[in-house]
Amino acid sequence: MTLRVQAPPQGSERVDGGSGCARVGSLRLRHALAAGILVALASVASSFGTLYLATGTGGMMVLAALAGILAASGAIIAWGLTARRFDALVAIAQRMRQIGNVASQGGTRPPVIDEIDAVEDALLHMLAAQAEDELRRAAAYEQIHHTGEMFAALFEHAPFGIALLHADGRFARTNDVYRKITGYTEEELGELGEPGVTAPESAAADQEARATLRQGGSCAPYEKEYLARGAIRVPVRITPFAPLDAGVNEFVWWIAEDLSVRRRLVDALKASETEARMLSAAFAHTSSLVVICNAAGAIEWVNQAFIDLSGYRLDEITGRKPGALLQGPQTDAATVEIMRTAIAAQRGFAVEILNYARAGRAFWLAMECAPVFDHLGRLERFVAIGRDITAQRQAEQALRESRERYQRALDGSQDGVWECDLRAGKFHFSDRFDELLGHPPGGLPRETPRWQALIHPDDIGPHLEATVQLLGAAQATMWEARVRTTSGEYRWLRFRGIAFRDAQGSAILTSGTASDIHDAKLAQLELEAHRDNLTRLVEARTRGLAQATREAEGAQAAAEAARQSALAASQSKSEFLANMSHELRTPMHAIISFASFGVDKIDRVDNAKLLHYFRNIHKSGSRLLLLLNDLLDLSKLEAGKMQMQRQMTDLRGLIDDATAEVEALARSRAIVLLVEVSGTLSAAVDPNRMLQVLRNLLSNAIKFSPDGGRVVLRCAWQPAAAGAGDAPLVELRVTDEGIGIPEDELEAVFDKFVQSSKTKTGAGGTGLGLAICREIVVAHGGTIYACNNPAPARGATLVLRFPAMLGEAAAAPRVPSSVC
User: Fold this and answer.
1) Lesser CB count within 10 Å: N end or C end of the chain?
2) Would you place residue 632 in the very low, low, confident or very high pLDDT band (cuts 50, 70, 90)?
3) Does residue 19 carry a pLDDT above 50?
4) Is 595 helix (H, G, I), strand (E, B) or coil?
5) Per residue in 723-732, is it b (16+ CB within 10 Å) or e — as a string?
6) What is the C-alpha separation between 28 and 16, in angstroms, rounded?
7) How far is CA 648 from the centre of its chain?
8) Residue 331, SS3?
């Protein structure tokens, strides 16, 4: 008889984890035991066969062999055979017993050997099936392990926040996105719990969602707000669900999607759509011609003004090129080439061109065309806007003819002739005008700034006022001014001028004459001087009589002013003490109240409630400390005991520090902070105190601005103030878009414990911030004031100016004056 033992399949021992190793060890032991039993069984069967053949008898030997076979089979079955295979082996054993009994009576070869072979096959089949089961379990474990790794990667790298919560709202685990949304670490979230980072008004929705999940229902997504670190409100969409196999009373999943960016995008899209509708309405109803062509230059749309001027309907010109419709025999070929070259190069252009309407009428257009590209930089279309300048061209032609006639009339006169092209900003002077000022023909400057530089400094103001009046008047305007000659002296000239306008009424040209009145003006000024001298003598005689009256009235007014000042000082003192008492008492009451709660309930409340009491005590204590620090600072500043540690400081770095400190407050209300600094700015300031001023001004601007508004901080050089030497000034402006300040309160807001009547019941505060800012700025030798933004803009601007240098410090760059 041949013993057949099948080895376990390759790979059956490769299982990860401790439980897998135990299963592999079990499988090896079973294989070894089964192989040993089979060898023993085969040996017994072979011995029995040999003995049977040798003796011809052997009832006892058959029974002994059968007993050994049954014992081995029982051991194997006890190790782990299934019930069905156990029944098969029992049936085989019974059959062998019957055959043994028969063999003991006859002399033939017993068939027990065949039965033993059948037992052997059954056992080998069992071992192979057992090995296959082990392989399937190992593969299943591998799949589960791989699925777990993929789930962990998805959990940590998902683009939305995921949190696993206990049923009471405590965090079991959160991913990185969820922690970024809230701004807290894993440990901090574990202490706070999901209700601790939820805005109060969103708590009811959370409770309803948890109740639905506990009842086994499905919960639809809903929106709420988190209170992230720094009390920043973050809008989110929550999708909660409970795993069915984990039990709804144990854990729930909380998926959070940050809606901040989406809301900003929606707002931007709405604004873009509104702008598009406005532009569409403007294009449709403007008096200018509007033509929209595709990338190939074919017409897609024209407005009504184009239809009215050209005589072509949109349906009959769509798909055609404008040049094929409008250009005619007198159209300038060079202008057409400029247009074609620009379109081929996907560039814009601006030209004046002669076109023809459908009826053959010629008209002039001032046309500007611009390409439109998509977000990938691909050309989409061209948009052209044209203005009918036919009347303007005709007026210019008539003006040229009139000027030629006017010039001929003045050729023999002694007056100089001047003309100014307002569009080009250049003058034309006759030869006589050049001669009046000692210049050869063509010697006077033609550009407006250089010409105005020749006007006497005392006369430049009246000269500019006269030119403005000239542009707005329908009749001739006359004025006088001194103009510098080539010798450096000034001569008096009398100017006369009139403005010429286009068809729309806009001034395009001014023209006039200039007469030399120098000698007559000097004589007039001398006469005026004698008259003024006589007037002064008369006034001197009457001045003494009025002096005594004024002195008496002045003494009475001084006494009344002193009395009013004393009353105002007393009133201010009373208001100051009342306000200070109120501001000190409010946080102190809060500290005492919450401390009393903690003392009385320390053994009856949980740590979360005690933490709430401690946080309120800390908040009120911080407010009290801030108030006391402000009072001490203000007292030192007013007494002149606070020394300013002034040093050369990079103002841009100081501004960056201030904006960084208030950035979170601005972002929580979607307020945009804009900083405009002109070049490199350094100044001799106390950096800590100036940072305190900037922080206070920016905080106020953000506090009083509407959500989604804008706060702008501008910093630039200003010319040196009178008597300040060569040192220029630094100007800082903080502009908000809030509710503004009443005009009669613009100065009062810098007093102690004073707030604007528009804001003192809204955003809060003690009213010391601006008072401290003013003292710090004054200590730097500067000034600070408030003003409302010009209509239609809203909000107010705080302006502070201070010298850039201290004493004889190195001079900063000189800058030209500018209009603020």
Assistant:
1) C
2) low
3) no
4) helix
5) eeeebbbbbb
6) 16
7) 32
8) coil
User: For 631-662, what is the HEC assignment?
Assistant: HHHHHHHHHCCCCCCCEEEEHHHHHHHHHHHH
Per-residue pLDDT, 120: 59
Mean pLDDT of 223-229: 89
Average pLDDT over residues 92-106: 58
Q: Is the pLDDT of residue 353 over 90?
A: yes
Token pair listed for 246: 């984990």
Task: Please give the mean pLDDT across all residues of the chain.
Answer: 77
* The two three-digit tokens of residue 226, written as one number: 């988190």
Tokens of 405: 């006639």
Secondary structure E strands in 485-548: 490-501, 507-516
Looking at 219-361, which runs of residues are DSSP E strands? 222-228, 232-241, 251-258, 289-294, 299-302, 349-356
Q: Tens digit of pLDDT for each residue in 199-213?
A: 999 888 888 888 888
Residue 130's H or E segment, with its range, is helix 112-157
Digit-coded pLDDT (tens) for 162-181: 888 887 888 888 998 889 88
Q: According to the model, what pLDDT value does residue 211 have?
A: 83
Six token digits for residue 372: 């439109």
Q: What is the mean pLDDT of residues 101-118?
A: 58
Which residue's entry shows tokens 């050869």? 440
Bridge partners (DSSP) of residue 351 are 367
From residue 649, give the alpha-carbon distance in Å to each of 70, 189, 437, 645, 682: 102, 41, 51, 11, 5
Q: How far apart are the first and last CA of the chain?
A: 116
Please state the rounded mean pLDDT for residues 572-599.
67
Residue type, 573: K
Minimal CA–CA distance to 730: which of 799, 793, 647, 786?
799
Dihedral angle computed from the Cα positions of residues 493, 498, 502 and 507, in that order, rounded to the nearest 10 degrees:
50
Greater pLDDT, 128 or 219 = 219
- Sign of CA pseudo-dihedral 211, 214, 216, 222: positive
CB contact at 8 A, 266 and 670: no
CB 368 within 8 A of CB 350: yes
Cα separation of 477 and 498, whole Å?
A: 6
CB 673 within 8 A of CB 662: yes
Residue 312 in this model has a pLDDT that exceeds 90: yes
Q: Using H for helix, E for strand and C for coil, what is the string for 737-762?
A: CCCCCCHHHCCHHHCCCCCCCCCCCC
Phi/psi for 17 (5° steps) reads 95, 165
pLDDT above 90: residue 740: no
Q: Give yes or no for a contact between 471 and 497, defined as CB atoms under 8 angstroms apart.
A: no
The better pLDDT of the pair 557, 795 is held by 795
| Cis-peptide, bond into residue 195, ω within 30° of zero | no
Q: What is the DSSP letter of 686?
A: -
How far is residue 131's CA from residue 123's CA, in Å, rounded to a whole number? Answer: 12
User: How far is it, in rounded angstroms, from Cα 659 to Cα 662?
Assistant: 5
Residue-level length of the chain? 820
